[in-house]
C-alpha cells in the first residue's frame, strides 16, 4: 500500500508540472508559433509544370535569287573518265588500284601497269649498261619510273647531288631531247630539284610505264638527252639493249664518261619495291657473319679426313 501511495503522489506532481509548463508556453505564445509551423508543413505544395519546347523540323528555305542572270557554273579541273571495271562474283567492282587514285589517272586503266621487283631491277641494269656506253662524256643519271611519275601527279624529282653540281638553283626552262632529236619543253624548279611543267606531256607521249628506267644525259646547261629503257623489253630480251643511236656503242668505251649516278636513290627505289623474302632455317651463315654449327661440323670432318 505504501508503494501505491508513493506512485500516486509522483504522478500527481508530474501532471501539475506539465500544466504549469503549458500555462507558461501560452503566456509566452510559443504554442501558437508551433501550431503555425505545423500548418505550414502540412499545406500541400503546388508542383510547377514544365513546358517542353518541341524542336521544329522545318526545312531551311534559302532566299530566292534576285538576279535574272543565270548562275555561273563552277569549273571542274578533274579528268572525267567512264571506265567499266570487271565485276566480281558478288557483283562488286574489282580492281587492283584504289578507286580514288584511279579517278586521277591521265591514261586509261587498261594501260596502267605495276612492275615487279625483278622487272624494275632488270631495267635498271640495262640502263646502267646504256649509260656506261655513252661516248660523249657528259654528266648523266638514271631515274626509275614509279606511278606518280607516269600515271598521275607527274612530278619528277631529280638526284640532289646531280642538281647541286650541274643545274641552276633557280627556276628555268629545260629542253628534253629524245634519241631522234625531237624536243619537249619542261620547267625545272631548282629549290625543289625536280621537273614539273612539260614532263607530263613527255611521259604521256612516250607512254612511260611503272618500272621503266630513263637515262638523262646533260648535253647542255639546260638541255637533256633522254634515253628510255622499257622494263617490258628488258624482261623479254634478257638484259639485251635495244638498238640505239650512234651516241651509244655496243662495247665499253675506253675513255670514262662523267657519270653522276645517284646510287643511293637507285637502292632506295629497289628496296621500296622489293618483296620480303623468308629466311630458311638451315642458313649457312648467321646474322653476324659467323659460321653456323652445321658449317663447324663440316669443317671438323674435313680436318679429320686431312689427318687420316
TrEMBL record:
Entry protein name: TF-B3 domain-containing protein
GO cellular component, one term: nucleus
Protein localization: Nucleus
Stretches assigned to the TF-B3 domain: 141-232
Annotated signal peptide: none
CDD domains, per the entry: B3_DNA (cd10017)
Comp. bias intervals (Acidic residues): 255-267
PROSITE patterns in the record: B3
Residue stretches of biased makeup (Basic residues): 271-288
